[in-house]
Amino acid sequence: MIRFNRNTLVASALTLALAATISVSSAQAQIAETGDQTTLIKVEQRLANRGFEPATGVYSKLNGGVVTLTGSVETLRQSVKAERAIAKIRGVQRVDNHLEVASFGRPDESIRKDIQNTLDTYLSNQVFDWVEARVESGQVLLTGQVDNPSTQARIQRAITKVPGVWRLVNSVETLPVSLFDDEVRSQALVAIYSHPAFVGQGLLNNPSIHILVSHGRIALKGTVATLAQKRLAESLVRSGTLSYGVDNQILISRRIRS
Predict the structure, then answer these.
(1) pTM to 2 decimals?
(2) What contacts 193, CB < 8 A, 6 or more positions away?
(3) Rounded distance, CA 198 to CA 97, Å?
(4) To pair with 99 at 20 to 30 A between CA atoms, which of 4, 67, 152, 243?
């Protein structure tokens, strides 16, 4: 009669359980690795379709659902575009974007000129919007207020395309929706641009004075040629609107902001 030692049976059971666990873990690892490989193929194909691949300086690797992008692109916009292209691929849990902007180091003054041209373009017929940009070592901070959110979005996209910009912080405020504010805007618009001193100064294109209204208060932005014009603009909106107050931030310069 064969007798089995209790300790021997327990040890054997533990050994079998451990072996089974190792086997399951190994199988799961193989499945995860196969899944990563399949996902990586999709990632590489998507990047290639968008014009990003090793030949263009963009490299990708994937581990546990996390895609890491390395290499370089010419603009911040391309970096954002590459990340967004793969972020929603099934199997991608996160994208670690370490792409460098190849144009990094471009002089701030050159960047600032391109950004100002962008702002001039997108604000050329937006009398109720105002956006300013500060540039420091290729980092851009946008501030201001807009009545039209789509203007803000278009400006942001355009600035990410400017060579040398490697980081963008958008702190532009969208003005609240208000029927009273809309009425004050209309009153201020008529008050300023119906006056002979401002007729022909770009109401429909490149307005010299921008009118920002929030909670019934008016802020005047822009550039005029003389102190008299600055004071006149403020006087016109104070007397011609139902606003709760006027903050006159108009600058004086012979070189009118266009």
Answers:
(1) 0.72
(2) 199, 201, 203, 207
(3) 49
(4) 152
Is the distance from CB of 220 to CB of 210 less than 8 angstroms?
A: yes
Rounded to the nearest 5 percent, the helix, strand and coil shares of the chain are 45, 25, 30
The 3-class secondary structure across 93-162, one letter per residue, is CEEEECCEECCCCCCHHHHHHHHHHHHHHHCCCCCCCEEEEEEECCEEEEEEEECCHHHHHHHHHHHCCC
HSE value, Cβ hemisphere, 13 Å, CA-based, for 75:
11
Residue with tokens 């012979």: 254
Confidence of residue 88 (pLDDT cuts 50, 70, 90): confident
Give the Cα separation of 68 and 66 in Å (integer): 6
* AA letter at 201: Q
Half-sphere exposure of 6 (CA within 13 A, CB side): 0
Cβ count within 10 A of residue 15:
10
Please identify which residue in the block is written with the tokens 């390395």: 70
pLDDT tens digits for range 142-174: 999 999 888 889 999 999 999 999 999 999 999
Model pLDDT, residue 145: 94
Number of neighbours of residue 198 by Cβ within 10 angstroms: 20
- The token pair at 104 is 């990094």
> What's the CA gap between 254 and 116, in Å, rounded?
17
**Which of 80, 83, 164 lies closest to 118, judged by CA?**
164
Contact yes or no for 121/149 (Cβ under 8 A): no
